[in-house]
Amino acid sequence: MDLWPILERLLADYRPLWEKRGLSVELNLKGERQPLFVNAELIKAAFSRLLLNAINFNRKDGSISILARYELEQTSFVFTDTGEGIPSEEQSLIFGGLYQVADHLTRKVDGLGVGLAIVRRIVEAHGGKVSVESIPENGSIFTILLPK
User: Fold this and answer.
1) Fewest Cβ atoms nearer than 10 Å: which of 27, 41, 105, 106?
2) Mean pLDDT calculated for residue range 57-85
3) Does this model's pTM top 0.85?
4) 129 — phi, psi (to 5°)?
5) Domain 4-147 belongs in CATH node 3.50.50.60
């Protein structure tokens, strides 16, 4: 399945949420689109969780960028936001489940802290990897790598 239409649909579905927060959102493509052997509903669930986190934990009037990069051996999906960011000592914990970065965030955003654990399990079930780079108060970059 080509995952580009899934990204387009999610952006359209969540438009009221990101517009309400004054966020600018862009979707970019590098390379030639190609289908991947994936469970579309599971990958959609992973993308949805990353996008919702980028919306919910972003600063007002911030931005979100999603890059789909189609390469020979793998396809990557890079979700970049200008949000709260994640301290380096907590980045290894966020994919474990039942974990949220800070108490002050949990009071603003409902959730159980399992979203990123679900993302990791979905991506790994497809033979891929998920990673994060983040700087507190500057935002985060979540990257999903899926094999061709």
Assistant:
1) 41
2) 96
3) yes
4) -140, 150
5) no
CA distances from 98 to 56, 116, 125 (A): 17, 9, 20
What's the token pair of residue 75? 């396809």
16-55: pLDDT as tens digits: 999 999 999 999 999 999 999 999 999 999 999 999 999 9
Q: With beta carbons less than 8 A apart as the criterion, state whether 78 and 143 touch.
A: yes
Element housing 140 (H / E): strand 139-147
Q: Which of 124, 126, 130, 121 is nearest to 38 (CA)?
A: 126
All residues at 6 or more sequence positions from 66 whose CB lies less than 8 Å from its CB, including other chains = 7, 11, 25, 26, 27, 28, 51, 77, 78, 79, 80
